[in-house]
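RESIDUES AND SHAPES:
===
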Amino acid sequence: MGLLAQQSKILTLCYYGHTALRTKSCDVYEITSDIQALALDMIKTMREEDGIGLAAPQIGKNINIVVIDIPKSNNKNKQDLCTISPGEFNLFPLMPLALINPKLSNFSEVKSTYTEGCLSIPGVTGKVSRPEFHDLDATLISGKKISYRCGGLLARCLQHEYDHLQGILFLDLLPRAEFKSLDDQLEKLKKRFNSL
């Protein structure tokens, strides 16, 4: 995607309890200059918040756009390059990246558990089990269509952001007891951010 436009602005985030986070998003039917500008604003916002992913519902827009910026591995030996997924190999050089109408499919049966957080649920984390690999089909803001098998942190980040487009939060994937243990914390977040 190259350099962020200088006119890009930081957008206001939606926090836990906001209706946009529980609403299923719609496809984007034309990549207009407004859509491109929104994607650049989302990237600037994600970076400002020190995130690695952001979905449009998190800034109050229920449309199928996600942006990601996965940190590159410092380890550049040949073995690492042979074991990373095609998605990691091809998409890492393009970061930060905006994906229009992403679709995930062919999830691996093998899962891994990792501690996740969310810019829309500050201060709250939980251990989430997700498939280690999946296929990604999406369109870049240039209009180019991509299709890759994704793994690693890329696969996890894409699943987390794709869930946002479905109105799903990582909290929904936690074991019931762990979710219940967060009740007080989540109630405070609701009151703090949704009364602003």
